[in-house]
Amino acid sequence: MSSDEKKITRGSDREKVEAFLQQVARTPGIRKTGEKGRLIFAMDATASREPTWDQACHIQAQMFEETEKLGGLEIQLCYYRGFREFDAGPWMDNASELRRRMTAVHCLGGMTQIGRLLGHALEETRRKKVNALVFVCDAMEEDVEQLSHKAGQLGLLGVPVFLFHEGGDPVAARAFEHFARLSGGACCPFDSRSADQLRDLLSAVAVYAAGGRNALESYGARRGGEIKRLTSQLRKD
After folding, report:
1. Distance (Å, rounded) from C-alpha 19 to C-alpha 138?
2. Which of 39, 64, 162, 218 could bond to 95 as cystine, CB 3.0-4.6 Å?
3. Is the pLDDT of residue 59 over 70?
4. Once rounded to an integer, what is the mean pLDDT over residues 181-203?
């Protein structure tokens, strides 16, 4: 790759991160009630995700680190794989236990079950408010209209969906962007070379779920570098 091409790639990555964080900041603020924020962390565990599964397991555990000082965060791990296997674990506020549960999961071939995941998120937030749904995925093999309806319902209930997708499927990418927009969330691509970017974005969403926009801006100030530059721009919106 030429130096000019590398500059274009880096610029494109920065634009995607900036757009993502701007969308996070535009979501409705979290009203502090003395309770911990609640976030559903969902993963596609079908065979195509296997190459980056271990990486994602390591990254997601860091989501807790930036939220403890905000009163903490409860996370529910969900995943689907194989033949209609869908699992939703207990709500946890312990990073070690969450990591243990994730590392016990192995990827299996199967079709996507995004509709089932979105339906589960609707049921959960109707029982008790869920502040955000994070979904790490790479494929979409279901009816777009039905999924869009559920994403819109989540938006009406104030549950933004933040999608992180890998792979080069343009159809899936467009669908994920549509679902995020309908829910009031955001969508951002990643690959095996962008672990740092994914870690920072996941942490940003976790901080937002726990403490709202002000907490997100404080996180950016502490992180410095690219995240500080982007969150400083958000204050001007």
Report:
1. 20
2. 64
3. no
4. 76
